Amino acid sequence: MPTPNDQGGELRGELLTLHARILLRMPIFELVLIGVIGWIVLPDIALSVFLAWAGFAFGVECIRAATARRALVRLAADPSPRIHTVFVALDGAAGLATGLAAVLFLARIPILSQAILETTLYTVAGAGVAVAVSSKRLPGLYSASVLVCAAAAWSTVHPAKALVVIALTVAYWLFLIGVSGDSERLLRRSLAIRRERDAALRELERRNQEIQELAARAERTALTRARVLAAVSHDLRQPLHALSAYSAVLLASPSAQTLREAGHNIDTLVRSLGEILGELFDLSRLSSGGYCLQHEPFALDRLTAGVCAEFTSSAAAKGLSLNWEVAPVELIGDASAIGRIVRNLLDNAIKYTERGEVRVMLAQVAGEAILEVCDTGRGIAAEEHRRIFEEFYQIEGASEDRPQGVGLGLSIVKHLCELMRARIELRSSLGAGTRFTVMMPGARAGTGAAGVLRSIEAGRESWRGARAYVVDDDPAVRTSMQVLLALWGFEVHCAGSAGEAEELVAQRGRPNLLLIDLRLPHAQDGAAVAARACAAHGEFPVLVITGESGESAFRSARQHGYTVLQKPVPFDTLYAAVSTAMQRSP
Asked: Which pTM does this prediction carry?
């Protein structure tokens, strides 16, 4: 919005511009006026006297016109008050030059010619208001100069009427000034309306631009969504097709070796499906602000080594050497989120490395876990360092035997780091490989471990005879969990609803471990069901498993202090959670 000073400058600029344009035409008007006065006073006045006056009056108007022409060039850039002062002075000079006609000629012409001359001059003084264009000072001095000369000449020639003439002249001059004031206020209002109109037009243009940008963004989003759905559809169909083939293999009574190979491949395919679904869920929650971090202690070295082990075959398939050096580090945070960061960085490194090695390093320094993922790939140009963290942005050049994906991995990494108050740094240049460094707070030195997970055989012996209850409304989930936990040495019992779970605990007593779905039939809350059982029969470890996302899905479970696992749960994550829970089992 213009300040008062800006508004004053705008008004002055408009007034002086209009006045200057009128002054360009004043020499023509002055010639007409000189002709009229010559008709009135000649031949009673000597021609030389008349021509001298006419030359002076016309010269002043020419000076005003020339000044106006120069002023128009400057007014567009700077409506200076000095230009206004010059115009006022020239207007006073022009009024004086015109009014001199009365002083020079009135006493020498007949009474009728006197009356006509005075009427003409008073009319010219009134016309000065129009020439001044909505200003008090511009017509004030011009009309005053004309009227003073005319009134003084009449009072000198007719002293008996001097007081009346002076009074009427003053009243007339005040009337002209009042009219000028009204015109100035009208001009101010016109300028205010124009400013409001211009502001409204600018606002409309801004809103129109915003709408166009939103429409373009919506169109880009729609195109991206279609591309993402196509890519996701392909990536989901591939492992599902392979799983259907392996199901046929299992039904054909395969040999023990074939069974082991099939089991290993099925595990890989399930992990792949979980990664795709997890990436989509993460994007949805991060975009909506509904991603809720867990804050629980876990062994970051075990998690990192486990992720590296997952990618060993992928790296070997490309002829790459995948090496990792992980110092014992414990971290308080969200194991699932950090696992996603490690997987996305490692997957990205293998995807864009054609030869050489990929190296993962983990250390603990001054209360921070330092994770580095380095590769000997093609590198990233400096101008792309920021863009690679944008959603759906992809760098050209992934290998043909590995799909490029949909460009979400590094964007998810960036968002997760921001949520965890972690820092991520990128060092890369074309032809020199890439190094991602993630610095995560809340770390401490760990106890170390020889392997990624505890031995299943050791777990089987230590958990033999322990009761594990599985509560889920999906029969397939209950059956698969029962088989898996039985292999780990548990005595497993299942329930499909809250009522069946409460009856199971009442009949067989409290379990050593309860795995319960968060959402049970009839809108029952699994965490609340577990809490009631603990209150009635004594405390026991509870793992809450859910396929939902968002803060609301975890609130009730965390209120009771239960660990939450999201479906699909990777084997190592489930095993680690069961191991931790069984350490607290009575």
From this structure: 0.43
In whole angstroms, what is the distance from residue 419 CA to residue 523 CA? 31
Tokens representing residue 461 in the block: 């012996």
Please give the structure tokens belonging to residue 235. 């990536």
Among the listed residues 395, 391, 467, 466, the one whose alpha carbon sits nearest the alpha carbon of residue 430: 395
Return d(Cα 495, Cα 472) in angstroms, integer. Answer: 7
Q: Rounded to whole angstroms, how far apart are CA atoms 121 and 95?
A: 10
End-to-end CA distance of the chain: 73
**DSSP code, position 570:** P
Q: Of 250 and 571, which is predicted with more confidence?
A: 250
Q: Long-range contacts: 174-181, Cβ < 8 Å, 24+?
A: 176/125, 176/126, 176/128, 176/129, 176/139, 176/143, 177/136, 177/139, 177/140, 179/129, 180/129, 180/132, 180/134, 180/135, 180/136, 180/138, 180/139, 180/140, 181/136
Taking 80 as the threshold, does the pLDDT of residue 212 lie above it?
A: yes
pLDDT of residue 152: 92
Do residues 360 and 375 make contact, with C-beta atoms less than 8 angstroms apart? no
Token pair belonging to 198: 């211009």
**Residue 449 near residue 302, CB atoms below 8 Å:** yes
Range list of H helices, 252-330:
256-288, 300-310, 312-317
DSSP code at position 160: G
Determine which helix (DSSP H) or strand (DSSP E) holds 390, and give its type and residue range: none
CB 158 within 8 A of CB 115: no
**DSSP of 501-538, one letter per residue?**
HHHHHHHH---SEEEEESEEGGGEEHHHHHHHHHHHH-
Structure tokens belonging to residue 568: 């699909």
User: Is the distance from CB of 514 to CB of 254 less than 8 angstroms?
Assistant: no
Confidence of residue 10 (pLDDT cuts 50, 70, 90): low
Q: Across-strand partners of 369?
A: 364, 440
Identify any residues that bridge with 375 across adjacent strands, giving them in sequence order. Answer: 358, 434
Contact call for residues 56 and 97 (beta carbons, < 8 A): yes
Backbone φ and ψ of 32, nearest 5°: -65, -45
Tokens representing 72 are: 């128009």
**Which residues, listed in sequence order, are joined to residue 40 by a DSSP beta bridge?**
none
Closest by Cα among 168, 161, 163, 54 to 122: 168
pLDDT in tens, 30-79: 899 999 999 999 989 999 999 999 999 999 999 989 988 888 887 766 66
Local structure of residue 246 (DSSP, 8 states): H
- CA distances to 102, 300, 329, 450 from 305, rounded to whole Å, are 110, 8, 11, 11
DSSP bridge partners of 298: 331
Q: Which two tokens stand for residue 265?
A: 């491949």
